[in-house]
Amino acid sequence: MTAETMPRKTRLRAEILLVLTVTFGMSGLRSVLRLIDDLLAEEALNEQQVTLNVSQSEFPWLDLALQLCSAGVLFAWGGLALFLLIIDGVRIPRWRWSDLGWGAVLAAVIGLPGLGLYVFSVHTGLSKVVVPTGMAHPEIEVPVLLLWSLANAFGEEVVVVMWLFTRLRHLGWGLPAVLAASSILRGSYHLYQGVSAGFGNIVMGLVYGWFYHRTGRVWPLVIAHFLIDAVAFVGYTALGGDLSWLGL
């Protein structure tokens, strides 16, 4: 059997299985297992801590090189998804300046309530204490944090929204099922931060998924995701890690 003779739906199912296994599907499974391990620990969830961005070497130049390699994986995941769509004849929307405005709106719609949910969840034991960065080299910290913000945004929104939406629709799935699948996937790979992170990202997935369904545009989602992460990562650094104003 070749790709030309394989039934289209069989090929699409195989593509979905392989891409998700390589990318966010496996990340989701690992995250679920980590949450189970955390819940079984003696410490309460809100007494545990997770750091999102850490140094990978004691030498700044080598740390930067390793960070570039790690972030490059996410860019490659997004690139793979785009490539698979392009060779199948799917049109990729071009960038528009209006995407910036929509991105800012979506970032505010998700980011501000998300911050409130996080603070509430830490106080109620539904979330770990999330430390946005613990990097050891200040001279490269901000550029690396911005790099990771862009890598997360590009990889997640292209794969979890644009590619997955397109492929599931090609399989004949209805909109409610597609929204649920994309949102649950997004929530799953954030569960290592706590139960509330999974719930919050499911809501984010529903909002972003609905926007994509209505507009067919992925770039506002990438911009919104970048802004949310960049503000959280760089803002934490600018504040010197002091979150007492949030009651934490």
Automatic annotation (TrEMBL):
It holds the Pfam family Rce1-like. The keyword Transmembrane helix applies. Residues 142-231 form the CAAX prenyl protease 2/Lysostaphin resistance protein A-like domain. The keyword Transit peptide does not apply. InterPro entries: Rce1/LyrA-like_dom. GO terms for biological process: CAAX-box protein maturation. The chain crosses the membrane at residues 12-33, 64-87, 99-120, 195-211, 218-239. It comes from the Bacteria. Keywords: Membrane, Transmembrane, Transmembrane helix. Signal peptide: none annotated. GO terms for molecular function: endopeptidase activity. This is CAAX prenyl protease 2/Lysostaphin resistance protein A-like domain-containing protein. It comes from Corynebacterium maris DSM 45190.
